[in-house]
Write a structure and sequence with these properties.
Blueprint lengths: L3 E13 L12 E13 L16 H16 L2 E5 L4 H10 L3 E4 L5 H13 L7 E10 L2 E6 H6 L2
Parallel strand pairs: 1-3, 3-4
Antiparallel strand pairs: 1-2, 2-5, 5-6
Length: 152
């Protein structure tokens, strides 16, 4: 049977600051992010299967992305863990959702992290092929499985 790609789109709000950056993004600021996740697989062909004709139930893909990314990052302040402990301690005591990452919270590095989290939770026979993280109306970072294979 043919391989088919399906895509689910998500939106979330997140604030961040880029530690050591030489432009205005070194300050805390927020974005309305858009996330597009594309997987590939063969539609289920087993007669009588409740998901007959589906590559993957969109609801199942939604549950994975929501649990791994949206519920974690939506309305959070995301910072590099290398930021001053004095600052991060104060933020943790003042705000509910402060996330410290072991990397700079750029769209480029977040999309790599998100792709890994999604890949680890997909069912057998389904492959992640694309994750697009739009930070603004005109700017996005994109992870493609085919690019990762070229680097091997």
């Amino acid at each position: 049977m043919a391989k088919i790609r399906i895509t689910k789109e998500f939106k979330f709000e997140m604030a961040h600051a880029l530690l050591g950056y030489d432009g205005p993004c070194r300050n805390v600021h927020g974005h309305s992010y858009e996330l597009k996740v594309t997987v590939i697989g063969e539609p289920i062909a087993s007669q009588g299967h409740v998901k007959l004709g589906m590559v993957m139930d969109f609801g199942d893909l939604k549950r994975i992305v929501k649990a791994q990314i949206i519920d974690v990052f939506d309305h959070a302040l995301v910072l590099n863990a290398a930021m001053s402990a004095e600052i991060t301690s104060h933020l943790h005591s003042s705000f509910e959702k402060v996330i410290l990452l072991d990397y700079q919270p750029t769209s480029e590095l977040m999309v790599i992290d998100f792709a890994q989290k999604i890949k680890e939770n997909l069912p057998a026979g389904i492959s992640l092929i694309r994750v697009l993280l739009r930070e603004t109306a005109t700017s996005y970072a994109e992870w493609l499985a085919s690019d990762q294979e070229q680097d091997r």
